[in-house]
Specification:
alpha+beta, single chain, 2 domains, 10 helices, Glutaredoxin, about 10% strand, Glutathione S-transferase Yfyf (Class Pi), Chain A, domain 2, globular, about 220 residues
Amino acid sequence: MALQLVIGNKNYSSWSLRAWLFLQQSQLAFEEIRISLFTQHWHQEIERYSPARQVPVLVDNGFAVWDSIAIFEYVLEKYPQAVGWPADFQARAIARSLSAEMHAGFMAVRAELPQNIRAHRPRRMESFSAAAQQQIQRIQSVWRTCYRQYGDRGPWLFGQFSIADVMYAPVAMRFLTYGVEVDAEARFFVEAVQALPAIKQWVAESAAEPETINFVDEL
């Protein structure tokens, strides 16, 4: 049986995007199971796969792994050729630190710039809270620092495409949705993400979804 990936709406679920992009960039075959968020049957459906009632969930021959980082590590142990961490041990430590920072933080960005792939709603920086503005600047600083330190190794944050790029790719898409102006160095990452064939596929499939989540769209 192929790997199965349980995701939410492509238009709205940034954590689903991370796991899906990771498997796509790893060139691993998987069956996609999409459960629409905030519907009457959501809890009943997701409980079939995850006791945490959250997406994404990776199912491997009936064995379920939830949480994106856990999914990445599980897949890497089983498929060492999958997208991984930088080869250099110090770069790897930084990549893990930045990925953990994204995994656990940036709550104001998540609240005020929710993923909405098919929307384009430019906002001025001053319309965001002070916390969101600070976090937006921190994200740009992450991208700038990575390119300045590792940019000679390739086009991604640590040269070659890694889990760190997977973790920050949905933020690049949020910046596009809300027209967040970034400096030239940070824009290099946004444009690199936007150009990925897998991201183009995700964008097209987001546009084709019939469901809407009003409290996100109304932003």
